[in-house]
Structure prediction request, 398 residues.
Amino acid sequence: MTTAPRIDQVFDFDALLTEEERGWQQKARGFAQERILPIIEEDFENKHFRKELIPELGAAGFLGMHLKGYGCAGAGAVAYGLVCLELEAADSGWRTFVSVQGSLAMSAIYKYGSEEQKQQWLPGMAAGELVGCFALTEPQGGSDPAAMSTVARREGDEWVIDGAKRWIGLAALADVAVVWARVEDPSGEYGEGARAVRGFIVPTSTAGFTATAIDGKLSMRASVQCDIDLDGVRLPADAILPGAAGLSGPFGCLNEARYGIVWGAMGAARSCLEVALDRSITREVFGKPIGANQLTQAKLADMFLEVEKGTLLALHLGRLKEAGTLTPAQISVGKLNSVREALEIAHQARTILGGDGITNAFPVMRHAANLESVRTYEGTDEIHQLILGRALTGLNAF
Ligand SMILES: Cc1cc2nc3c(=O)[nH]c(=O)nc-3n(C[C@H](O)[C@H](O)[C@H](O)COP(=O)(O)OP(=O)(O)OC[C@H]3O[C@@H](n4cnc5c(N)ncnc54)[C@H](O)[C@@H]3O)c2cc1C
Prediction:
């Protein structure tokens, strides 16, 4: 029997990375193997989010690692992508944690916050001592944030926020929430017109803020998403993020998180391919390894093709990001492709594993279930198709 090569060595992908990037990847791979893989099946089964790992992720430098200063690592976009890939190869829930904390909550404060806000929140969040969440989606439909109905009214020197948010990652355990709301300010000082969308930094201990974990999830079971109720939440005047006016604010953060998903989903895909490949060599049916059948090899070849293409695309987008030229439409290409192909790879891997593939002896069904969430958040397939359709035709079909 021939020995199968490690799939990430076939294209010599490592040769395309710097030593520093390889170092980040090794660190994340080690963390995933030592700290997440041994417990993830149990946590997924028991719907348990192991929050004690958060300071360890902070100590490893993974939280807000692409940001500079304030205790953040200041790493490049490719290094961050590789960390997302390695964490999601273990479980999408842990890559999601890093995305919500670093790409969404911390990025919002970093990009749009005052110096005081950055000093107050970012070092603790980078260390994993404080947890942040990013509250944009509302119960009536996440695909159209322009229809937002959460309102921030100006009353004297205070803001008063009323509304509801849904599907907000980490909210029940977060120390701070970045809440997006439509401003009602009679003075017209904030935003274009009196109803611009603005971001607010809301300590979750503020009266009127209630987060309730959403139960019954068959996906992302080892992580936490919540409903948030905002009932007369009173905040000081300086709770507003001064640098963000309108929906370009939250979209600037979503693009950061979408970029991480381009890489992360390929981690889940690689994990599925690895176990399918291993099983195809060790499992014998009809007196020979199932991998000796041309039909199985065709599946493996197609899965391999998409993992390689998707990872190379992620690297290309990472280099564009580092050069400062990455566009939202390019991110949509990557997000749509990575998640769609990762799901297909998970489904094909499950067929190769046969009946055993539906059990938690293999990570494949867990990845497939998680990827259903990844397909939906940060812009559904359809939303990214609409973004690309608009970029191609110049016609807005939303
Ligand atoms: C696990 C998980 C974690 C999440 N974390 C966060 C978070 O931390 N913060 C946050 O703010 N949100 C978060 N979300 C919310 C997520 O971003 C939304 O679920 C997503 O935007 C889709 O919104 P929706 O679920 O309301 O679906 P809807 O908007 O109701 O869409 C339903 C379907 O209709 C389709 N559709 C809608 N409009 C069109 C159109 N014009 N043309 C064609 N098809 C269309 C959609 O593509 C989708 O298939 C999370 C969601 C999940 C599942």
Notes: The mean pLDDT is 95. Residues 100, 134-137, 141-143, 167-169, 220, 225, 373, 376-377, 380, 382-383, 398 surround flavin-adenine dinucleotide (CB under 6 Å). The chain is about 50% helix and 15% strand.
